[in-house]
């Protein structure tokens, strides 16, 4: 329940900030072009708060926090006082109208730079991209990647943490190969070429790194219990946090993998688990449950401390943070555009699309991790919204810009009839994409 609340709250906050900044871009440029603003709304539907300014603009917060809008005066669609006709959006020059429309997506990119600048100024605790293990007969193993080596470059671009690595690899989906440069514990550098022609990535069941056979380094789990699930076989039998398992059915164990292997082979069976609790030696008979055909105890182990040499704080001064914000926003823009291109040509399947449920889950998880991680997520959503709105689809900002480009070439506006047909076509495209995205979200939630 707590995670659901984080998801809903994070989704509302993230979308509210991103959409408000988008609409403020339209608003700010429109005001400077002399357009009369009738309404500036955060959200849709019935206003729950509103205020009318001296210039007649109504500022409001509406009940449905899933977007927002700026309503500008259009003298051809509504009664207009003669003195206000020059302030109508439709009466502005082609360049001014195009600037007003383009200002929304541009504002999203500026917002991304701003939040990433803030994130880098605050500092984000992170870890170096150390490879924990390489799966047998995987793309990574065939390329020669070695465990306990640090990834320092992907396709010749420097990477600092696993987020950098993941973004660079996602951008290669649908391509034939990628290169990863690593440094081993002795300081020796090696470049591996990964053949991606057989790369099959199902976002519903695996991570980008996992699909390549790369396991992220994590400290060795101990045989001491860190967490016990409520009403699990372990809790019902009397096992407690900080108990150290020393034997299963009389077989001594020293590694957590031994415990999971012994338990997995005995679903729904009773097993004898010997533990150390302080100075005591205790023995419990535990009736295991069954999960996916394997014996299930309902516990998680305590891990060894994460090596300090692998930890660092990604933090910069004001100037370097600004440069970093620009660079990371540019990278996100390239990634988003690249994915759109690959979706169009079929290099990437439509099952990679995410909708509001996926965004809410991402917002919730990032919000629960802390402010700096949530800022990073908002930057990604803001860039994605900016790129989406620039697509030349009627109903989107990019569709309006397409009409203005045609107007610039032919010397007159696109006819109302053509625009209306285009808008209907645009609605169908957007509805189709939304249905697919929501279907993908739901399929990822199902077992």
User: If helices are DSSP runs of H or I spanning 4 or more residues, what is the number of helices?
Assistant: 12
The secondary structure category is alpha+beta
Shape from CA axes?
A: elongated
Give the helix level as a range of percent. Answer: 40-55%
- H/E element sequence: HEEHEEHEEHEEHEEHEEHEEEEEEHHHHH
Lateral strand order in the biggest sheet: 6-5-7-8
Uncertain spans, ≥5 residues at pLDDT below 50? 355-368
Report the mean per-residue pLDDT as an integer: 84
Q: What's the end-to-end separation, in Å?
A: 18 Å
Could you walk me through the main structural features you see in this protein, from its secondary elements to its overall organization?
With 447 residues, the protein is of the alpha+beta class. The protein has helices at 2-32, 94-122, 139-143, 162-170, 208-212, 233-237, 256-264, 318-345, 356-369, 371-390, 397-410, 416-445; strands at 37-52, 58-72, 124-127, 131-134, 150-154, 157-158, 177-183, 189-195, 214-216, 221-228, 244-248, 251-252, 270-277, 280-287, 289-291, 294-296, 299-303, 311-314. The strands form 7 sheets. A 4-stranded antiparallel β-sheet has the order 6-5-7-8. A 4-stranded antiparallel β-sheet has the order 12-11-13-14. A two-stranded antiparallel sheet has the order 1-2. Strand 11 (244-248) and strand 12 (251-252) form a beta hairpin. Helix 1 crosses helix 10 (371-390), helix 2 runs antiparallel to helix 10 and helix 8 (318-345) packs across helix 10. The chain is elongated, with a radius of gyration of 27 Å. 29% of the residues are buried. Mean pLDDT is 84; it is low at 355-368.
